[in-house]
Amino acid sequence: MIQLKNKLWGLMLIFPALSFSQTYQWQWSKQAGGISGSADPGFSYPFDESIRDIAVDNNNNTYYLATMREQGQNLNGSAVTNYGLSDLFLFSTDCQGNIRWSRAIGGSGNGENAWHIKVDNNGGVYVMATLYNAADTNDPSAVPIHFDDTHTIPPYTFTDLTTPDPGYKSAYLLKYNTSNGILAWSKPLQGDVNYLSRICDVHMMYMDSSKNIHAVLGFRAGTHLNGLINVPSSYSSSFQYYLVKFNYDNGNMTPSTPVLLPITGTLKAGATEGKVNLLYDESLNRYYLAGNRMQETTGLEDFAYNNIPFTKKAFLLAFDGTAGAELWRKEITTNITGTSLDDEIHSIIKDPTSSDIYISGRYFMIGTTPTFGNYTFPSSSYQGQTPFVMKLNSGGSVQWTKIADGITSFGGYPFVKGKLAINGNELAFAKGSWNDIWGSYSMVRPNGDKADPLLVRLNKDSGAIIGAAEVKSNYDSQDEFTAIAVDNDGNYILGGLFHDQLFTDPNDGINTMGVNVIGGKSQSFFTKYAKSACSQMSVEETAAQAGMQLYPNPVQDVLTVRSKEPLVSYEIYGATGQLIKQGPLNMTQEQIVLSSLQTGVYYIKLKTKSSTVTEKILKK
User: Fold this and answer.
1) Cα(first)–Cα(last) distance of the chain, in Å?
2) How many domains are contained in the chain?
3) Is residue 481 assigned to a domain?
């Protein structure tokens, strides 16, 4: 461990451009999107464009899940593939924001939905999606669901509502190669389904430290998951829910025996809005469901656990992973007759060093201060929409809650999604707002303006405000953060939506960015808020620790690498951290030709299946 620490310190001294400063700043920002949008005059989270999720691998490559509407589809100004009215859009950048690849997932219509992506750091990025095929063999113009350029769901032949067809399968777990975005495999989660029974509630997934995927799946009548699930015929128009663990095995995912959950009613987690999030605590074998009951035209969807109904909109439920037994639950209760439809929980994450959890959301306060279970939220000097971040222990006891300290102008703002991420001792809260005050930070906007993206940084142990940052836009434009991740250097990668212009403050270090389509609705945007220069490098082990030998060093032309297990790849970096050369490897002893390199200091990053090593080499 001392040797590794000394090595890291040495790299910091040699790479001054990669060392950390104390000040975050916006490094770059880019956009993606098409022209069309939903018929809703405002922003519709299920149907308009935004970044839905972000993941970072151990090479500091970033992966984004977004939605892409039809006409003029582009990624940072370059045309991209599309298939229908609205597609899922998966793409990747390096740590400098350079586009690595992009992938449209969809077909005719707009029946594609997914809300989360996960990476396994072994070449795989995973998406759990509901993909409702609109390609009927009777319509030659219809485009079937595409997973990538060559893999599709076959068109169905419509006979009647009850005849099964392979083209009706709509629930999928997908794996894409992180190197190029090509589909590695697709796993249909349903068995034989017809036009009616294909409807499902599939969306929630969580990846644990062993890269197993945990999911809550809701199916209608039939046999599903390769015969592991049998839903009775009485579920012809409702869902039976199961907890399923997909065991990771070198990139494959094999489902284990499902646990039938005592859920009645519906979560509608993935049907339209991704309103419910799943979290798993490995040390306790415990699951959490946090989110909001879906709103229908006549009120809220019925939802009960173990025959005990939830009566409010926003809820948090903890249950045991062995048999699904409820442990505790909490709901937000406000002083509004009936149920407040503005109360929501948007995000839930776990502290990596304990079993404490963090949630974020909003509630509508008027008169009496709202409660969460038997806990009363902090009092405030303002009324209306109130954003909050909360820390709870594993027993459900609230440790602290932080709400906006004030409002600088008229009213609060019901931001679309407020997402959380942990970065060392920081808890980051990314959202949109008109006019929040957090500690000494005041976001000032004129009356009548709409939301701008806002990032609030808190101490994860106390809730104290560390800092905040905003992205200014033009007046009367709704622009928000909807996703956040932390890279390996402790920098923030954020995504969201905007409608006209972003980074209009001349002092933010980013050129003002305008939407690059004409006549559209929202565009997705993604940006980096960093305190260090970009580094694709990471140092996990020394060569000795990983059982490697490198010789000769200094090297003239050919470097020989010996390893106790087969090598997978190499990357050569210059002294300032720029990637110079890379390539695949596959044996325990390899020779890497370096004759083209100029004399100087370089760093070689070597990977095996189980380790990553970075070593300094001298080129003669």
Assistant:
1) 31
2) 2
3) no
Looking at residue 12, what is its pLDDT? 38
In this structure, what DSSP letter does residue 166 have? G
Domain-terminating residue out of 265, 286, 307: 265
What is the amino acid identity at position 313?
K
Q: Is the pLDDT of residue 271 over 60?
A: no
As a whole number of angstroms, the distance between CA 66 and CA 403 comes to: 29
**Tokens (6 digits) for 532:** 């260090």
The CA distances from residue 42 to 69, 346, 445, in Å, are 15, 20, 20
Query: Is 375 inside any structural domain?
Result: no
Contacts of 16 (CB under 8 A, 6+ apart): none
Q: Answer whether residue 552 is part of any domain.
A: yes
pLDDT band at residue 575 under the 50/70/90 scheme: low
Q: What are phi and psi of 208, to 5 degrees?
A: -90, -175
Is the predicted pLDDT of residue 310 greater than 60, yes or no? yes
The residue out of 265, 288, 322 marking a domain boundary is 265
- The string of DSSP letters for 20-43 reads --S--EEEEEEEEE-S---SSSS-
Confidence of residue 465 (pLDDT cuts 50, 70, 90): very high
Q: How long, in residues, is the chain?
A: 620
Q: Is residue 91 part of a domain?
A: no
Residue numbers of the domain that contains 576: 546-619
- For CA atoms 47, 216, 347, 487, give the dihedral sign: negative
CB-based contact 332:312 (threshold 8 Å): yes
Q: What CATH number is associated with residue 594?
A: 2.60.40.3080
pTM: 0.84
Q: Is the pLDDT of residue 499 over 60?
A: yes
The torsion region of residue 180 among left (phi > 0), alpha (psi -120 to 50) and beta comes to: alpha
